[in-house]
Structures are given as C-alpha cells and as structure tokens.
Amino acid sequence: MLRGGTVGRRFTILYAAGFLGSGIVLLVLTYVMSGVRLSAPAPGNVPASPANLSDAQQQIRGLQNQLAEVHARQEHRMVVAWLLALVVMAALSLLLGRLLARRVLRPLRLITAATRRISAENLHERLAVTGPADEVKELADTVDGLLERLEASFVAQRRFVGNASHELRTPLATIRASLDVAVAKPEPAAQTLALAGRVRTELDRVDHLLDGFLLLARAQHGAFSDRTLVSLGELARGALGGRAPDIAAKGLGVDAEAGEAAWTRGSAVLLSRMVQNVVDNAIAHNEESGWIRVATDSDGSGVRLVVESGGPVLEQGRVDRLGQPFERLGAARTGSEGGSGLGLSIVAAIVAAHGGGLVLLARPEGGLRVMVTLPSAAPENDAVRAGVRA
Fold first, then answer.
1. Partner of 232 for a Cys bridge, out of 17, 109, 296, 383, CB 3.0 to 4.6 A?
2. How many Cβ atoms from other residues are within 10 Å of residue 133's Cβ?
3. Which ranges carry the HAMP domain (predicted)?
4. DSSP state, 225?
C-alpha cells in the first residue's frame, strides 16, 4: 500500500500508523500501571462484626467476591474506554495526517503547476519560490536552473538555424550565378549544358531542403505570432488546385468534400504548408490512375482534415514513424523526385504547435489515411470583436 498511491496518501498512512502505535503503547502502559488500583466496597455493604470464626470466613469470602466483581467491572469499563479512545485517535490521526500532508506538500503542488505552465513559448518564466532554504526551495532553484539552461539552448538553436540557412544560401546563390554565366557563353558545350542542368536540379533540392528545415524549426519552437482565422476547406481546395497539373498527369481521381465550417485559428502560412504537404504526399506516393479523397468537417469541439489515397499495402508500424524527419517507406518512397523526407514531419510539428493531433493510418486495402484534428474557432465571433475594436 505504501509503494503505490500519492505521496500525500503515503504520508497520511505513515503519520496515522505512528500516531496509533504511540497511542497503543501509552494505553498499554496505563493499563499495566493502573492494574493494582481497585475500588473498595462501599461502607454500607460491610456486614456486622462476626460472632465466630465461621461467620468471619464467610464474610471474607463475600468481600473477596465483591472485590472480584468490582475488578471485573472496572476492567470492562477500561477496555471499552480504551477502544473508544483508539477509534477517536484513529480518526484524529487520519484527519491530522491529511491536513499535515496537504500543508507539507503544498509547495510541491505549486511547483508542479508552475512547471506545467512553462513551455517552449515562455521559457523565460521562473518558479521564483521564496521561503526558508529547505529542500523544497532547493528543488525549485534546481528547476529554475534547468529552465535557464533550456532557454539558452532554445535560443542558441533558433539562432543557429537562422544563421546557417542564410550562410548556406549565399554559396548556393553564387553557384547558381556561376552556372548561368557558364551557360550564357556563346556556343556552350553539350557536356556543360548537361552538367548545368543536373547541378541546377540538385541546387533546387537543397533550397527545398533548407526551406523545410526552417519551417520545421519554426513549427517546433512555436515561433509565430501571425495567428488569424483560417478555413481548412479553403486551404484544401487551394492545395488541390495548385497541384491540378500533377493530378492530371498521374490520372488521379479526386473526391473533395471541403466544408465551409472547418474554421480554426493559427498561422495561415504554416497551416497552408501543412495542408499542401499532406496533399503532396497523397499525390507523390500514389499509384497511377489512383484516387484521392479530401474532406474537412467540424463537430463543435474541433475541426478535421482527412486525406486518403490509394496505393500498396503498408505496415502500420512503419507508418507510425513517418512523422519523424527523413523517415520514408520503402525504395519507391525514397526515390521520389524532389522528396526530402520532411513533409509529414513538418505536418506533425505544425499540428503540435497549434494544439492539434495527427493520426497516420495504413488502410487495409492499401494506401494511407491522414487525419489532422485542430481546435475549432467561430468566425462570427471574430467579426463581432473586430467590429467592436474598429
């Protein structure tokens, strides 16, 4: 019992056991020390002086019987009183133990609540527990030190991602300009043109990879303040319209059920990229003349985006890892053109940054089902508030 449950419960049980144990020892000592004290019979019950020896012996036996009865009654009353005292002590010990446990553990509960409120967006906050230099304050100071190191690590990581992206784009731009100069020369060699085409393709892939890194870092750190009202239905229709040539080239059938009620609040740029990545994944890893179904809906508690696609049968264990960077399925997915392995990991990061959920499900018939759930928002309330502010 002591190994399970909360610390408060264990503290209460230990306190009650110790309190009751000391009470039992005290009562036993009282019983032993009071065992020689017996009440004498009342004077009115003492018989008259005996006339002979037999009468005296009979009176003595009578007095002994009376003393035995008095002793038995006293023992009975003492046992009843001690049992009542134990019951009262048990109740008081549990009550006092519970009150003391709450009092002692109250700073720990405050530290736990404050730590839960601190996330990547407010790592600058500290517990700042005041009071005597005891174990609780030492624990709070340790947590504050950990938060300070985490904040410094996050800041350094964001600075590194931003600086590295800009530093890498400069040589890439130089290489691209050198290629343009080489190709622009009069009558360039065929090998030069072929090499320039391959290098440009790789440069485009590197640019795409850098964009993915920056977007992934931004989504993972929640570093966006452009929250606005966004319709998942409009984003889905826009993503399908932008990839219409690729859909037609692959002969894919599209079933779109994008409702107007699927409104959420967040970064329009990130949410648009999230929907595009899900749609791009369904197109790029689909089979020829396959199908895609895109649906958005709302049930009051949240909005959903569901994208299903056909294809080969996939293993659910490997599908569960697609939300991690550079995770792909099979050689066909690894060799997809323009793929960086960041698409669904970016989706997972954007969904998490907006307080939503992502479910990747391998369809038994083949293909993949992607379901994104986000908190819902009411557009009419925002319009009313905007009118009030205006």
1. 296
2. 8
3. 102-155
4. -
Q: Which amino acid is at 56?
A: A
Domain edges within the chain? 7-117, 135-221, 227-381
Q: Residue 248 and residue 10: Cα distance in Å, rounded?
A: 67
Q: What interhelical angle do 135-184 and 53-117 show, nearest 10?
A: 20
CATH topology of domain 227-381: Heat Shock Protein 90 (3.30.565)
**49: buried, middle or exposed (CB in 10 Å: 19+, 13-18, 0-12)?**
exposed
AA letter at 383: A
The CA-based diameter of the chain, rounded to the nearest angstrom, is 158
pLDDT digits (tens, 9 = 90+) for 89-141: 778 777 887 887 777 777 788 888 888 877 666 777 788 777 777 777 888 88
For 65-77, write each residue's pLDDT tens digit: 888 888 788 778 8
- DSSP code of 260? T
Global pTM value? 0.56
